[in-house]
């Protein structure tokens, strides 16, 4: 197959998948899920056959991925009756996983993730301003109120994630919703290293309220601009945080 | 409410396809509601485990070839059951058209917790006592699909016990609605009571958009010559002129 003109992104799509890269990508996915709290401590993972079916890979690949997670101390495997693989969240919480990952990501990659997230968040907010009905606006207000009330960093993170998911839902787009979820797993976990304190929480609540106001007023320009600004600011803050860590 | 006066043949054909879809789906939802009612003995203990008795009829509906439903089941009223505050006895069509049980997370602190107490497919049948169609909406709690959800209340001894329901992907509804929409000699859109477009025969009126030509929520209350409602359901055919 000749692949021309379309550059490396297309070439990468058609590149053969090595079993090691597949297994490490599955390990990364599961690590992100643990960092996000989607897989809580002590949760039993599905069996190897089920995981293989879910990811569409062989059980050999799954075994490799699980072995990486075991090596990282993120799962524990018990044999025999009642056995299986169980999640072990590190003692210092999921944020240590995110911090470890942040060290591996270059600044240009962070900027690029921020660029994509800006596009997704801005377009979702603009479409929501065009398509949200009264019920959607009420759900967004509820999500914003939950964010305002959240006190613990973890509760704030969950409420923030929920709010931005609601924006893509109000936009009526299953694809934007899926992109939002993927970006929250890939980028949101990192962003949250630099957030959660009272000052940034106050800013976040103000920004979310401004987005809902713009959506309710059917002002697509204001909704887009406010949502984009939030991601731009958050990315800059994360890059500053990362730079501070290196000092 | 507008009545069937001055309904063109084109509009009538689209309304007919819409009615066929609703009749078929609510027929199946009604069977799930009846099976559920048999299990909810007003005098006995109300247990989530006894709802297993509806699994057979529900999985048969979900797995049946050629019907539009991709998920179905019963969702208990919050606080109705004795052994858990929330419960979904729900199946979704998975690999090879097999029905997969939706895992009910009953701990509100857990990440997979499904808080349905404020969602329209639950709230509207509870508050009105009538059947309802929710959507089109992104069903981010269950399938991640763009979905229409058909629900009806299940009432035991005048107490709201929950809703029986079924999901239909908007893609599927579109496939069923397109033949009469394509055949129509006029611009028509199928909309919900908010004016959200389910399907249309115009590129300027795409699915998910709110109809700008007619103030549908107002027309719903007072009637409008361009809006033709489907029986008691929050669905209508709008004449785009």
Automatic annotation (TrEMBL), chain A:
<keyword id="KW-0804">Transcription</keyword>
<dbReference type="InterPro" id="IPR000524">
    <property type="entry name" value="Tscrpt_reg_HTH_GntR"/>
</dbReference>
<dbReference type="InterPro" id="IPR011711">
    <property type="entry name" value="GntR_C"/>
</dbReference>
<keyword id="KW-0805">Transcription regulation</keyword>
<dbReference type="InterPro" id="IPR036390">
    <property type="entry name" value="WH_DNA-bd_sf"/>
</dbReference>
<dbReference type="Pfam" id="PF07729">
    <property type="entry name" value="FCD"/>
</dbReference>
<protein>
    <submittedName>
        <fullName>FCD domain-containing protein</fullName>
    </submittedName>
</protein>
<feature type="domain" description="HTH gntR-type">
    <location>
        <begin position="20"/>
        <end position="90"/>
    </location>
</feature>
<dbReference type="InterPro" id="IPR008920">
    <property type="entry name" value="TF_FadR/GntR_C"/>
</dbReference>
<dbReference type="Pfam" id="PF00392">
    <property type="entry name" value="GntR"/>
</dbReference>
<keyword id="KW-0238">DNA-binding</keyword>
<dbReference type="InterPro" id="IPR036388">
    <property type="entry name" value="WH-like_DNA-bd_sf"/>
</dbReference>
UniProtKB/TrEMBL annotation, chain B:
<dbReference type="Pfam" id="PF22673">
    <property type="entry name" value="MCP-like_PDC_1"/>
</dbReference>
<protein>
    <submittedName>
        <fullName>Cache domain-containing protein</fullName>
    </submittedName>
</protein>
